[in-house]
Amino acid sequence: MRTSASLGVLALVALAPSLAAAQPPNRVYVGAYLTDVSDFDLKAGRFKADLRVWLKWLGTDDVPDLTFENGEIESKDELGKEHDGAWHSVQYRVQGTFRGEFPVHDFPFDRQTLPVVFGLEQAGGQLVPDLGASGMSPGFSVTGWLYEPFFNARTEVKTFGSDLGSVDEEGKSTVLPRVAFTVELRRPIAPYMLKFVLPLALILLMALLALFLPAETLEVRSAMGVTSLLSCIAFHYSQSDTLPNVSYLVAADLLFLGAYTFVTATLLISVVTYRLHSGQATLAQRVDRAGIVGLPSVTVVLLIALVQVFGRSHAIAAPMPEPHATQPRLTVGAFSLDTIATSGGPQRRSFLVVRGADGTTQPSLVEEAPSMTNQLVRLLPDGGMRVRWRLVPNARWSDGRPVTLDDLLFSVNSVTSPLRTAVEAIDERTVDVTYSQRRKEFLEGLVLFPRAALEPVFADGGREAMSRAAVEASAPTAAAYRVRSYAAGKSLSLERNESFGGARPTFDAIEVVKVDPKDAAQALTSHAVDVLPVLDAKTYAALQHDPRVKVLEQPGDTLWVLVPNLTEPPWNELAARRALLSAIDRDALAKLFEPEPVHVASGWRAGFHAPSLPRYTPQAQAALAALGLEGAHLTLHTGSLAVKDGPLARVAEKLMADFVRAGLEVEVVEHQEIYPLLQKGGFEGLVLASRDTADAARFLNVPFSGGHFDVEHVHGAHFDEAMKSAYERFASSLYDERRAALEQGLQALWAERLPTLPLVLTSRLSAVRADLVGPKWGLSDSLYWNVGDWRFETAARAR
Q1: How confident is the model at residue 799 (pLDDT cuts 50, 70, 90)?
Q2: How are beta strands 111-119 and 146-147 bridged, if at all?
Q3: Contact yes or no for 580/719 (Cβ under 8 A)
Q4: Cα–Cα–Cα angle for 656, 662, 663, rounded to 5 degrees
Q5: Cβ neighbours of 640 (radius 10 Å)
Q6: For residue 94, pLDDT beyond 90
Q7: Widest CA span in the chain
Q8: Per mean pLDDT, which of 3-7, 40-44, 246-250, 338-342 is the most reliable?
Q9: Rounded to whole angstroms, how far apart are CA atoms 476 and 450?
Q10: Predicted pLDDT of residue 323
């Protein structure tokens, strides 16, 4: 539909967090590659190691003072330093002897850990393991042990009950953050059992054979028993020589104690049958037979039990957080209830991981979120990466069905990715996904779908149809809450999903009710509703200083842009785009959103500033005229014009006024959905859109094909080889600090080429009751990322 009139609202899209703001301050990554291990001495508690060590950090070029907390370093040679702006690295080759604690309670079923412990003073930064990039040579061996050629790592804090001579911290305990890289060793049980159990079994067999001799041959039977007993003692001492001197019994000691008992029992039986044979020969034979059958049977049962107890893994699962006391309900006020997806209620999609308010990825339906700082991410020699997902145990869909490996495999494979090379099931809860390239996006945002319920939908309509179906009332969910009832346009009732795989949610129910925007502020302050997930300008103005509520802001979540068609003149010329941007009074545009927080945009991240970007000037008409554009026809495509006083209408009206003042003839084309037009391309003129800033590729004005923006190829002067290379470096970086720095450089190149014209950055706003604990926008993808933990300060509350 074509119109030259006023304009309506383009729905704001939820913002992914600002990478630049998301990073914890002063993180220092430490990584290691183990080249060789030698002289592992279990008795002495020491081993020698030859390894490469590196540090990566964002900041000044001062090298952090890394210490080796359990090492006697023989050599530490610096191999080089590298810099890319404020991102630095330094590499060393280190050789030394390292100490460890090697408990042998479970010997010979014991597993040992070879640790290399790094330390860094708190003033030097927060030390974290660069575990994804760390590794070890597959060629070395620790004689007599088996191992997986990958490090594990743990972070810890050591507190000294001393100030260690410090003047600035005099009288205070010294705290030293540490990172321990560990190699997990285990004994090869089968060959060890041959060396250990077989000789012991032969000794016991020799003692048992005495019971086959006549009862009257006491001298021979007792000699066999005594010889077996002495052999056990000698064998026991020979085994003990391989172990450190410890004050506790090890599993092998229990075996020998059993052997002593076995041999002693044969001696006792020999004495008893000797005493019985002269007067009760039949009873003596029965005693011998009972010993021949009973002693081996009892021994085998006890040996099997011992192997099961000491041979199993002793890993301890992380404890589930203690749930808060349950509370009756939470009420959410929504401006629209046309569909469940637009209700403003908690997310019903089942996410494997969520982004928290601090910007870090946190587990939801997996045991741990994959990260470069844990063992779930491995960088591969061919330039790819492997990501491991492990489902939490006992999670169920809201229809009672268990969350299974089939659901996880189906969900992974439902995403089309040309970079994915393999999907491998490891066990009944674990999947490894391998990619040919390294991308941060592979660690985030995977949605879990119920295969049994949604596979037919996927087969008919693809992933987009399945995503829509996943939020319908009838669709099973593994999220914290499930739909109890839904009345379109009126209300939505959610109840606790008792089968949720995480901690038990606090509220029994969440009620979503429709509120009129003009009454929203009063509804919140009167406690008719507890949460307003979206605020318009008037509601924000009424609530921003009210002590009875908390207003939450996610800054710079949406970028308003003009997207030109770069394949046709005149906007395929950079000079024309710069002249057009200078005709737009963006400061006046920002004032249209007051009192809401808004910023004039230089890029897609709040805080980025590009001095070279054209600023508004009343002389823009002359600049356009110099390019032959005075009186030129300009088509402006917009979204729906249904709301006449909405932000889109006001922005578009202001743009038209600026363009007319610059001497252009403006025609507005209205669309019910604007994003399909952007994806299809080939439109005339410019498109006015507001896009969330989760994906920088949305603003590069490159073709959309195969379900993604084509950033793999050059597309003219606006996306040349320099832009393509800068984007590849940004997208392939797995370190948040480096990504933030690279994104700044990418935005600087973007501002020079101006593929889209930035207007303003707006914030996403919501408000909750002041006594509601838990809601926090921060850097999260959704207000409801931790809705299961929300609670009122009072234990119970009556309506």
Answers
A1: very low
A2: unpaired
A3: no
A4: 95
A5: 18
A6: yes
A7: 132
A8: 40-44
A9: 7
A10: 64
Task: Tell me the pLDDT tens digit for each residue of 138-179.
Answer: 777 777 788 888 888 988 888 887 877 877 777 787 788 899
The DSSP line for 284-303 is HHHHHHHHHHHHHHHHHHHH
3-class secondary-structure state, position 258:
helix
- What is the rounded distance in angstroms from the CA atom of residue 447 to the CA atom of residue 781? 13
pLDDT per position as a tens digit, 22-80: 444 588 999 999 999 988 888 888 999 999 999 999 988 899 999 999 999 999 999 99
Q: Which two tokens stand for residue 366?
A: 């997996």
The enclosing H or E element of 543 equals helix 537-543
Q: Is the dihedral of CA 225, 228, 230, 236 positive or negative?
A: negative
For residue 401, with 0-12 CB atoms within 10 Å meaning exposed, 13-18 middle and 19 or more buried, which class applies?
middle
DSSP letter at 366 equals B
pLDDT of residue 7: 26
The beta strand positions in 382-535, using DSSP E, are 385-390, 420-427, 430-435, 447-448, 481-487, 491-496, 507-514, 531-532
- The confidence score (pLDDT) of residue 8 equals 28
Answer yes or no: are the C-beta atoms of 114 and 155 closer than 8 Å.
no
Flag the least confident range among 342-346, 583-587, 628-632, 664-668: 342-346
Q: Is 449 exposed, middle or buried (0-12, 13-18, 19+ CB in 10 A)?
A: buried
Q: Is the dihedral angle over the CA atoms 493, 496, 497, 503 positive or is it negative?
A: positive
Q: Which of 680, 673, 681, 700 is nearest to 603 (CA)?
A: 700
Which residues, in sequence order, are CB contacts of 12 under 8 Å at separation 6+? Answer: 534, 557, 558, 690, 762, 764
- Give me the sign of the Cα torsion angle 302, 303, 304, 310: positive
Cβ contacts of 390 within 8 Å, gap of 6 or more: 366, 367, 368, 376, 429, 430, 431
Bigger pLDDT: 303 vs 688: 688
Cα gap 766→775, rounded to integer Å: 10
Q: Which pTM does this prediction carry?
A: 0.78
Tokens 């304009």, located at residue: 7
Higher pLDDT, 660 or 325: 660
Quick one: pLDDT at residue 5?
A: 30
687 CB neighbour count, 10 Å cutoff: 23
* Prior bond of 570 cis (ω within 30°): yes
At residue 575's C-alpha, the angle toward residues 574 and 580, to 5°, is 100
**Structure token digits, residue 34:** 């183990």
Q: Which is it for the CA torsion 577, 582, 584, 587, positive or negative?
A: positive
Cα distance between residue 525 and residue 389, in whole Å = 43
Q: Which amino acid is at 105?
A: H
Bridge partner list, 531: 332, 768
Measured distance between the N- and C-terminal CA atoms of the chain, rounded to whole angstroms:
48
What is the gyration radius of the CA atoms in the chain, in angstroms? Answer: 35
Helices (H), 369-505: 405-413, 451-469
Where residue 449 falls (left for φ over 0; alpha for ψ -120 to 50; beta otherwise) is: beta
